[in-house]
Specification:
It is built from 15 helices and 26 strands. By secondary structure, the protein is α/β, with parallel strands linked by helices. It has 3 domains: 153 residues, Rossmann fold; 210 residues, Rossmann fold, CATH 3.40.50; 101 residues, GMP Synthetase, Chain A, domain 3 (2-Layer Sandwich), CATH 3.30.300. It has a 9-stranded mixed beta sheet with strand order 2-1-11-10-12-13-14-15-16, sandwiched between helices. It has a 5-stranded mixed beta sheet with strand order 4-3-5-7-6, sandwiched between helices. The longest helix has 17 residues. The termini are far apart.
Amino acid sequence: MLERISDIPRCWAARAPDHIAVIERGRTVTYAQLWDQVRQARHYLQSQGVASGDRVQIVAENTLAVITLIFALAELEAWPVVTNARMTAREIEEIRVHCQPRLLLFTHAASPDALRHGLRYRAREIEAPGLGPLMAADVDEAGEREPAALAREVAALIYTSGTTGQRKGVMVTHRGLLHYARITVQSRRMTPEDCAYAVMPLSHIFGLATLLLATLHAGGSLYLVARFNPDDACAALQRETISILQGVPAMFSRILAHLQRQNISTLRAQRLRYLYTGGGPLEATLKRNVETVFGQPLHHGYGMTEYAGSLFITRMDRPRQDCAAGEIVEGAQLRLVGPDGEPAPPGMPGELWVKGPGVMHGYYRAPALTAEALRPDGWLNTGDIGRLGPDGALFIVGRTRDVILRSGFSVYPIEVESVINSHPAVRLSAVVGKPADDGNEEVIAFVELREGQPLDVDDLQAFLAERLSPYKRPARLVRVPLIPTTASGKLHKHRLRSMLAELD
């Protein structure tokens, strides 16, 4: 029985030692080789004084060394804090100060950004057994170790993207990650013959749980990519043995834009059998266009870091025509709570409360935030708003904190964004509320246009007038060259709100 995430590669190294576990830049690594590297990395970490209850911050982009470190730290009951190297210096320092890592590592050979951060911390270059070239800052022996019981329970410390301006470290458990890996394998019918394209950052729950752990749980192969490039992705799909393509909606949008520039209407990858998008809302136009290009369904789901992965997933045997996030997964429970704290009426939106094996232990060193989100009886307030269809499928309506109050009505940005994104000239949009003098909020839409398209405000407003009630229509449409997103591809609403002041 699997008890910690490192048991996954350990088991497959024994069962199928010569099967390929990871493909990285043309190099293949078998399960036996991966496990040998994990053991070597464990010895290196021990030589640096890393032990149960420690945190190790890894500033990196996707590379084999990160995977090796994640499993090696699990063996020591220490916590990896994988931090995307593309974050700013301020963001990385905030995480370092908060988690107080005993060891700070940088994958400088695979990431120019990691090199830049490593130099800032005066890290030295090393050649660590099982890991290859890294940079390591001086060991910090001042940080306190976590109690043994907590150290055994928690598999990783994942810092949320901070779209609200308050970054939180989620203590994700071994139990939750292993449970999610198993149900992901089942929902996608994964086998050792599968090869999953993995460009989502391993610093994000999508990259860690959906891509790394689920793929290896199935005994499959991970096609590891450090940075997304649509040209490389399309070439890999046609050239390699990739059977599963998963990513955020923005990734699929960029693939479609690339193919459109190449005048390619269909892409038939020989072994590709499963498409999935999560980590953000899916709108109908994108779903339809992806399915036309690839000739197969685009599956969807809803999840969160605080639940170690997805809570709802569409089923392979009944793909949906709409943009629902699918049906609840095994082991999870759901409550829809209305504004009065009572159950929301059938078919009406409500705040999503969830319970099950994937629920986090809590937010690291933030008892007040933990108490706000997590109830003593195990129910987690997701902060998201959704409704259930007649067949039990979940439709995400928005975030509690994103709701815009206009003329006594609640405006859900996702609905407005979905309509704007359906306009042929628009590639992506993001809607936020701007406080007005009368106590209302104005609906402001930031719009990123498709390449070569002009912004015809009157035309777009007329388009929206036919599809949205007056109180939902944007008071202002603001063209931006690029909608800001987080490292994991989500809309960066906090940054957009800060841009509102510049509109005055």
